[in-house]
Amino acid sequence: MTACISAFAVMSLRGDVLVSRDFLSDVPRTALETFYRFYTFWQQENANNVEFQDQPQAPPCFDVDGVHYFSVSKSGLIFVATSRSNASPSFVLEFLTRVSRAMADFLGTLNEESVRRNMVLVYELVDEMVDFGYPQLTSTEALKAYVLSQAKAPSQGSSGAASANGMSGRPGARGAGMPSGGPSQGAAALAAATGVSNTDGVGGAAAAAGGSGRDEIFVDVVEKISLTFNASGSLVASDIDGAIQVRSFLNGKPEIRLALNEDLSIGGRGGSPFANDYAYAAGRSPMVMLDDANFHEAVNLDHFERERILTLNHLPEGEFTLMNYRCSNTTMIRPPFQMSVSVSEASSYSVDLIVTLKGDFPGKLHATNVCVQIPVPKAVSKATARPIPLETIGGGGGGGGGG
Question: Model pTM?
Answer without folding.
Answer: 0.49
